[in-house]
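FAQ

Q: What does a record look like?
A: Structure on top, sequence underneath. For example:
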């Protein structure tokens, strides 16, 4: 039998390993910088093109205001726009909280009873696919409180992603692990708490990021449909008012506030998701490139 001479086995030199590690660190650093720098560069380019189009075509501000005018208007009209933003944010946060409570609770109920899922899930789909503008006349008849109307509309929009994603996660548990829990005499509550809920967490957090943006969209659309006005109205009412008065820079400033709020909601929920999943789930664990 031929023998293997271990002394002839070549190991990669330490310098090569250090060079590869240094290159990997540099690549990771460049990627982190590019993740923020590239979107900012594209945004600056888009703003520059916007400005040049306005200048080259001599477009008046009541048709298309220049970016700097929008930013100036946002600063000057902060006393009008920021209180409206707080109203919209209140509806958004409350509707998202209700969507999480109702969606997770109903998803758990679906998991515990297949018959309940088959009976109720089609109605959740009907709520999701029916436009708010079609449902709102009924809501307007049966609900007297203006805030409750807006909250219900935003909740309908944000509810389904939480329900569907959480239900999918709870039903995506490894069957071998389920059998293991059954063999060890685990109760339904123990299986739900120690197996199903942790397995569904990534799905739930993915649905939460979707629902966060939809809750904001639902709150704004609900205000458009409801035609809310007055001091206690949100950003949608300010947009409608600015459009009627041809204050287009204020309209763009309100749109900018809505966009920035949506970005902030998404980033906040993404950070929460990362903090929860970073130690144990493959989607958040950093890998060697």
């Amino acid at each position: 039998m031929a023998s293997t001479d271990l002394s002839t086995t070549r190991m990669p030199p330490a310098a090569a390993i250090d060079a590869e590690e240094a290159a990997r660190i540099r690549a990771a650093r460049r990627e982190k910088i590019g993740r923020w720098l590239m979107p900012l560069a594209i945004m600056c380019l888009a703003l520059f093109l916007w400005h040049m189009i306005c200048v080259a075509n001599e477009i008046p501000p009541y048709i298309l205001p220049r970016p700097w005018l929008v930013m100036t208007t946002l600063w000057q009209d902060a006393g009008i726009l920021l209180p409206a933003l707080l109203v919209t944010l209140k509806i958004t946060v409350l509707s998202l909280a209700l969507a999480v409570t109702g969606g997770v609770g109903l998803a758990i109920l679906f998991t515990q009873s297949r018959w309940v899922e088959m009976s109720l899930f089609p109605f959740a789909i009907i709520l999701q696919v029916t436009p708010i503008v079609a449902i709102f006349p009924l809501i307007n008849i049966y609900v007297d409180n203006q805030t409750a109307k807006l909250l219900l509309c935003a909740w309908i929009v944000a509810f389904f992603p939480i329900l569907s994603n959480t239900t999918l996660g709870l039903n995506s548990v490894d069957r071998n692990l389920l059998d293991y829990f059954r063999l060890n005499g685990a109760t339904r509550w123990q299986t739900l708490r120690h197996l199903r809920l942790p397995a569904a967490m990534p799905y739930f957090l993915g649905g939460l990021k979707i629902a966060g943006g939809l809750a904001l969209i639902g709150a704004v659309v609900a205000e458009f449909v409801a035609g809310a006005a007055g001091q206690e109205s949100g950003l949608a009412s300010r947009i409608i008012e600015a459009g009627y008065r041809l204050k287009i820079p204020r309209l763009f400033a309100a749109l900018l506030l809505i966009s920035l709020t949506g970005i902030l909601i998404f980033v906040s929920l993404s950070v929460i998701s990362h903090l929860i999943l970073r130690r144990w789930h493959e989607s958040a664990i950093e890998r060697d490139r």
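Q: Is there anything notable about this one?
A: The domain at 67-277 is CATH 1.10.3720.10 (MetI-like fold).
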